Amino acid sequence: MKKTLDRKTLDGKKLAAGLAAATCSLLGQPVMAQDTDDAWQFDSAVLYYSEQDRVTAVEPVVRGKKQFQDESELELKLTLDTLTGASHNGAITSDKPQTFTSPSGGSTYEVTNEVPLDDAFKDTRVAANMQYTRPFTRTLRWTGGLNFSNEYDFTSLGLNAGLLWDLNNKNTTLTFGLAHEADTIDPVGGAPVGLTFQTEEDKTDGTEDRSINDFLFGVTQVINRRWIMQFNYNLSVSDGYHTDPYKVVTVVDANGDPLEAESFGATDIGAGDAQIFELRPDSRTKNAIYWENRYHFNRDVLAVGYRFMSDDWGISSHTVDVKYRSQFDNGWYLQPHVRWYDQGEADFYRESITAAELTDLQNSESEVSADYRLGNLTDTTYGFKVGKEWDNNQQLSLRVESFTQSGDSDASELDALITQVGYTFYW
Amino acid sequence: MKRLMSLVAVMAVLGALAGCQNLGVQPWERDLLAKPVMTPGAADGLDDALDDHIYFSKEATSGGRGFGGGGCGCN
Predict the structure, then answer these.
(1) Regarding beta strands A248-252 and A353-354, do their DSSP bridges make them parallel or antiparallel, or are they unpaired?
(2) Which of A1, A12, B11, B43 has the most other CB atoms within 10 Å of its CB?
(3) Where is the signal peptide (chain A) (predicted)?
(4) Which residue of A has its CA nearest to B48?
(5) Are the beta carbons of A281 and A348 closer than 8 angstroms?
(6) Residue B47 lies in a domain
(7) For every one of its 427 residues, what pLDDT tens digit does chain A have, with 9 covering 90 and above?
(8) What gap in Å lies between CA A376 and CA A372, rounded to an integer?
């Protein structure tokens, strides 16, 4: 309302834009030029993610945002995600042959001297998000959202609600948020019984469930005219099925070579077939803190983010994310990006297990996983984004980044290329 | 002991908020802060959401910046 009044009485494009900027709330969306005030802002992007010898993903996204006269805001997002290629099945890399069953149980495949990959990896994911934010006093806003995501063997439904509270002349904003997510997992060929030999195909029909409850508390603080800071605390509690139904753990002898399933009384399907289905805990509690800083130099902007996460699986991780936006004439910018991530392994992570360890696990019904994503891991990403912004607020950008993973096992050695084209327009 | 810890934590948060009153700018000094590139969580358009999705499926950590949202069967 204030924006409209100012514009009417002063009738100056520049001044109105300046005042709109001045009244823009901290966590609100970017101030738009006058001619885009009543328009929908559309952000669109296509991500192309390609791992060497493994997964390739193509992900188009479109997001529409609109601010209404009453200062409420609606955001709608649609994501399509197509995956093809192969993913690590959990087994060790060995110079001895290993035999595996496909997830559907219909066929077997043998791997020697290579990271064992399940090449039946193919999926299409559709996700839709809706978020609505509305002020109900001068300093308080509420927000509510719905999320839906569906792929061949997985469906997720989520809702969230939050409160945003502006303090100190809008220099401080407190955020309180709650989210609930209900996941349904319907694995191809059924959900395997953990710690049983994959050759037995011991699987249960029907679906598995998982529910996740999140709490978020955030403080956004303006430090000075050039510097803004955000601090978040996130508690996430999930209950239910956390096991990856397509991952196995290799049972090895004293030399580290794969054993035979028949020596345990299980069905023989080939050489090195002593592979058991993994088993993870049925709950997980994560605590994360996130700290973001944005500093505006005369033209350039530096953004530094840090996250620490710790969970009751014994995993802790550090993430550092740095972007530097160099602003050039005529709306061009170049933004180098570096990301570094380091995690410690889960208590139940094993690259492989011995026959004695398998007996212990089965007797105590304990968990085990050889998924390298739960092991020690160091990731680095570096690359850049180049973009051009026109006077009518249209924006075109290209992002190219290199992503490298490295950990204790051969399976964790991974290189990927991230390419993204983005286009923003108003309509 | 736990109550004492909670009390200390609450005092620390209140103290920090009181400190925040001395920080910040006047409304007419928001020229730089009002730019989209200075909005935490929204400065990079769809990049953050796409990155969160990539790293969610490749690492054991997610969340922190906000809620996951939308879910994924990839981890």
Answers:
(1) parallel
(2) B43
(3) 1-33
(4) A321
(5) yes
(6) yes
(7) 333 333 333 333 333 333 333 333 333 344 444 455 789 999 999 999 999 999 999 999 999 999 999 999 999 999 999 999 999 999 999 999 999 999 887 799 999 999 999 987 788 999 999 999 999 999 999 999 999 999 999 999 999 999 999 999 999 999 999 999 999 999 999 999 999 999 999 999 889 999 999 999 999 999 999 999 999 999 999 999 999 999 999 999 999 999 999 999 999 999 999 999 999 999 999 999 999 999 999 999 999 999 999 999 999 999 999 999 999 999 999 999 999 999 999 999 999 999 999 999 999 999 999 999 999 999 999 999 999 999 988 999 999 999 999 999 999 999 999 999 999 999 9
(8) 8
A chain contacts of residue B56, beta-carbon cutoff 8 Å:
none
Domain-embedded: residue A422 = no
Which residues on B lie below 8 Å from A128 (Cβ)? 70
Q: Is residue A193 part of a domain?
A: yes
Alpha carbon of residue A340 to chain centroid: 15
Structural domain for A367, as ranges: 54-85+118-246+279-417
CA distances from B34 to A149, A211, A397 (A): 33, 38, 21
The answer to whether position A41 is within a domain reads no
What ipTM did this prediction achieve?
A: 0.88
Q: For position A177, which CATH number holds?
A: 2.40.170.20
**Do the domain assignments include residue B69?**
no
Of A23, A179, A373, the CB nearest to B58: A373
pTM of this structure: 0.88
Rounded to 10 degrees, the C-alpha dihedral A257/A249/A367/A379 comes to: 100
Domain limits for position B35: 27-60
Residue B33 within any structural domain of the chain: yes
| Residues of chain A with C-beta less than 8 angstroms from the C-beta of B50 | 45, 47, 59, 61, 420
Query: Does some domain include residue A96?
Result: no
- In 3D space, the residue among B64, B20, B27 whose CA is nearest the CA of residue A225 turns out to be B27
How many domains is chain B partitioned into structurally?
Answer: 1
**Domain assignment of residue B31, yes or no:** yes
Q: Quick one: tokens of A34?
A: 């006058």
Tokens of B12: 């620390």
